[in-house]
Amino acid sequence: MLLISAAPKLGLPLEAILRGAALPPGALGQRGVPIPLSAARYVWSSAERVSGDPMLGLHVAETLDVGTLDILDYLSRSSASFGAALSRFIRFAPLLADSGVLSLHADGGNARFRHVAPNGVPAVSELLAGMTVLRARAFSGEYLRPLAVRFRHHRKRGAGAYERIFDAPVEFGAPFDELVFRREHLDMPFRSADPRLCEILEASALLRLQQQSRVDAPPPAAPCSFVDEVREGLRECIAEGNPNIDNVAERMGVSPRTLQRRLREERTSHRALLAETRAALVDRYLASASPSRHTLAAELGYASARSVSRALRRR
What we know:
Helix content: 55-70%
Radius of gyration: 21 Å
Largest sheet: 5 strands, mixed
Strand order of the largest sheet: 1-2-5-3-4
Number of helices: 15
Distance between the termini: 36 Å
Shape: globular
Strand content: 5-15%
Number of strands: 5
């Protein structure tokens, strides 16, 4: 865990922070052991409480030496360009942690490095954004400045850390975490590029990813039904903040009327599946944290905290 690597430099009392954390076997003694999101949430919350530092994620990003991310660091550093490094980081991020869904989009003159994690940890989101910018500057030798930085969580105290690291407008309460760059920055060459080393490391990372997938793979599942596809669409729309029937139908590639008709044929409805999906997400949130009603409303696409309270009373 990256926090553990940074703790000595920041003077953090690891024993107090890790007390009660359900870390997987080998997480402290072996490199490359992925950390479940529930364990990461506990440890980061504990670290912020013990340290009294609300900007801990950004401060950790500033202290991490190259190599702390194990193979991901060396693979990124040996890539030919910033865009190539981001693509490899996205592909192999599961080797490091269960941290949500990463993606890279280019539209018009902009490039967007996006992080979607409905039950994410604010400190981890800030750590990820900070590391991305700081390592791009270090590997390229250029002063990369984002056009915009966006976080799903609300603003914390100590705005100076945001300004010092990003030197860019920072927005809060966004639908997802996002770094926006000029599209041309994707072609920014890395001084540390090493094509042969990159090829070797990529093959090694792919092997690790395949081994990890075999270990973590669940038993073969039954073929995915239309209702299962709708449930998945609902989870994605909830993560983006608007799970209404029009958005879900658009994601499914059908009209709202067709979606309603097919769900009736399956003896269910958009409303019933939305309630079921939200209930499952609430259980996950409450198992790993004690979020406020306002936080649950934002995370689950409810109109207000009062709506969440009514939903919880019906359970």
